[in-house]
Design a protein that fits this description.
0% strand, 3 helices, 136 residues, single chain, elongated
């Protein structure tokens, strides 16, 4: 709004205190900060001493992270292998269930046939005796 007032040619001095009260004082424009490099200062020596330590720490972290990635990859490979084995077992289960069912049915049929032969055998024996008696 102050820009509109300025463009329209209105005085804005009266609005400035109100704006400052609502939004706070305008910040001073940032001054350009071009620090001059200090030569052979304690700060430079501190940076030079700290840099190799930080580099070594960074390398240690990188090695640790690489080990973790290798361990995770190995674990993932093991899990994928186990999953493949479980999948193969799961896929073979219906066929095995069918085989057990068929074997049970065959056993039932065989047992039934044996029981029928056992039940019929006295009848056939009587029939054979009667046949021999009639023949003789």
């Amino acid at each position: 709004m102050p820009r509109d007032c300025v463009e329209a040619g209105h005085e804005v001095e009266e609005r400035d205190p109100l704006s400052n009260e609502i939004f706070g004082e305008p910040a001073d424009p940032p001054t350009s900060c071009d620090p001059k490099p200090a030569q052979n200062s304690n700060q430079d020596r501190g940076l030079l001493n700290r840099a190799p330590r930080e580099f070594e720490a960074t390398q240690d972290r990188a090695v640790h992270l690489k080990d973790q990635v290798t361990e995770r990859d190995s674990s993932t490979s093991t899990i994928e292998h186990q999953l493949s084995a479980y999948r193969a077992v799961a896929e073979s289960l219906p066929g095995q269930i069918d085989e057990v069912s068929r074997a049970g049915d065959e056993t039932k049929n065989f047992e039934t046939a044996r029981l029928v032969r056992q039940a019929v055998s006295p009848v056939t024996a009587v029939a054979a005796v009667n046949k021999m008696r009639d023949a003789g």
